[in-house]
Write a structure and sequence with these properties.
seven-stranded mixed beta sheet, two-stranded antiparallel sheet, 2 helices
Length: 151
């Protein structure tokens, strides 16, 4: 049995070490995202909940996130980070400021209150698979990233 090109046993071991999408038997866009993630090290698949990143991506989109060191960030990148409330958020880098990076959702009127630093950065959005919210049961098992109002 295979999951995104990885044998089932290897996939289960990888899932225990790092949460990724459960890709077996899925169709586009999740299947395409899983194929991409399985072909390159340091990638993970997440699904978007929320609309703060419209028109870049919407609720139900599937994103592939790539680990990246904070030193390689630059304004305009869409990144995934963990905010001070423990939520995983996908927003755009606005500017480097003292102590980190200011981020903001495309559709939000103000930036987030949490700065992005090396300690809370998860990665950069490497690919986006926009699609209407899927009813595929496999999508429910995919790690969620919020595109949420600023907090």
């Amino acid at each position: 049995m295979k999951a995104c090109g990885i044998t089932w046993l290897v996939f289960i071991l990888a899932l225990a070490a790092n949460p990724v999408a459960r890709c077996e038997g899925t169709a586009d866009p999740l299947g395409d995202a899983c194929k991409l993630a399985s072909a390159h090290a340091g990638l993970r698949v997440m699904r978007v909940q929320g609309a703060s990143m419209l028109p870049f991506f919407d609720d139900g989109a599937v994103v592939v996130v790539k680990s990246i060191p904070v030193e390689r960030l630059y304004p305009g990148m869409v990144i995934v980070y963990r905010n001070r409330f423990g939520e995983t958020i996908a927003h755009r880098l606005v500017a480097a400021v003292a102590g980190g990076w200011r981020v903001k959702g495309e559709a939000n009127g103000r930036p987030d209150s949490t700065l992005v630093t090396a300690r809370n950065l998860i990665g950069v959005v490497y690919a986006v698979f926009n699609a209407p919210p899927a009813t595929n049961a496999a999508l429910a098992a995919v790690e969620v990233v919020l595109a949420a109002p600023a907090r």
